[in-house]
Amino acid sequence: MPKLKTKAAIKKRYKITATGKFMRKHAFKNHILTKKSGNRIRRLRKLTVVSPSEEKRIFRAFPYS
What secondary structure does DSSP assign to 17-36, as a single string? Predict the structure, then answer.
């Protein structure tokens, strides 16, 4: 069986931790930031863990993770 390719879009958007979890960026931090509070913008900077239901989908596109 040939090698499987990793989806480039998934590779760009998600990061794998040492324990095998997927991390992603928060949404709502691209534009119209003037009406969002500083605390909210600061919270959105951090990465967050992907939900278990989404993790299954990402795992299939990341064959050698």
Answer: -TTS-EEE--SS-SS--TTS
